[in-house]
Amino acid sequence: MRLSIIIPAYNEERYLPDCLASIQREIELSAKSEDVEILVIDNASTDRTGDAARAFSNVRVIREDTKGLTCARQRGLAAASGDVLAFVDADTRMPQGWIKQVMGVFKGCAETVCVSGPYIYYDGSAIEGLLVGLYWRTLALPAYWITRYMAVGGNFAARREALLKIGGFDQGIAFYGEDTNIARRLAAVGKVKFYLRLPMYTSARRLHGEGVWRMALKYGANFLSEVTLKRPVTSSYRDIR
């Protein structure tokens, strides 16, 4: 089973090297039996994002000049050759064992079409870590139990055939709600699984830029809107770099 790791990247020359280094370490340590490719989707960057990615071996850089997260994800879907496509953000750091866990779920259950887990902020404060942990356990996990679908945009993997079956990503969605949208639509063709034991380390830059409560409100409102109205309520977003 072949795995493609897809990283949308807009002006990410600062964070991308640590992300790619963590993925390559994970491949060396725990993915020796897997066939893995890494794709960086340089999404209309105006900095040296492409050069930062090309500095790593076994990384394929694909330019997508239409700016937008879902446009970058869709370009990755079209270019990837894997049976399973993993989508991670450029400011994430992959923990050891992530690939083994993800691929184990897909190999163990043919009906599973998507696997996801929470974020852990590697540069947040202790209080922020506590609040975020409470969010995942007391709000996000119960919401998953009710809906039976949830995906975190920078920490999920899906079967390529399932993504193609539903028509890929909704490129009409700018940012907020895109992960719930893809999880909801994938749930129509198979099982979507969310595990607290499958975290991804990520930067707290948006948490700091938006503020804890404003960010929680935006993500919560767009999750509920996608579940009930099948569309997000927030049409604009701010790039935080």
Summarize the structure.
It contains nine helices and ten strands.
Architecture overview:
With 241 residues, the chain is of the alpha/beta class. The protein has a single domain (2-229), classed as Spore Coat Polysaccharide Biosynthesis Protein SpsA, Chain A. The protein has nine helices and ten strands. It has helices spanning 16-30, 49-54, 69-79, 98-108, 126-147, 160-165, 178-186, 205-210, 212-229, and strands at 2-9, 35-43, 59-64, 84-88, 92-93, 112-116, 119-121, 155-159, 191-194, 200-202. Helix 2 (49-54) links the parallel strand 2 (35-43) and strand 3 (59-64). The longest helix has 22 residues, at 126-147.
Strand content: 15-25%
Show unreliable segments.
none
Q: Give the second-level CATH assignment, the architecture.
A: Alpha-Beta Complex
**How many beta-strand segments?**
10
What overall form do the CA principal axes indicate? globular
User: What does the largest sheet look like?
Assistant: 7 strands, mixed
Backbone structural class: alpha/beta
Arithmetic mean of pLDDT: 96
> Regarding CATH, which class?
Alpha Beta
Tally of individual helices = 9
Q: Which topology does CATH recognise?
A: Spore Coat Polysaccharide Biosynthesis Protein SpsA, Chain A
Helix percentage range? 40-55%
Q: Please provide the ordered H/E string of secondary-structure elements.
A: EHEHEHEEHEEHEHHEEHH
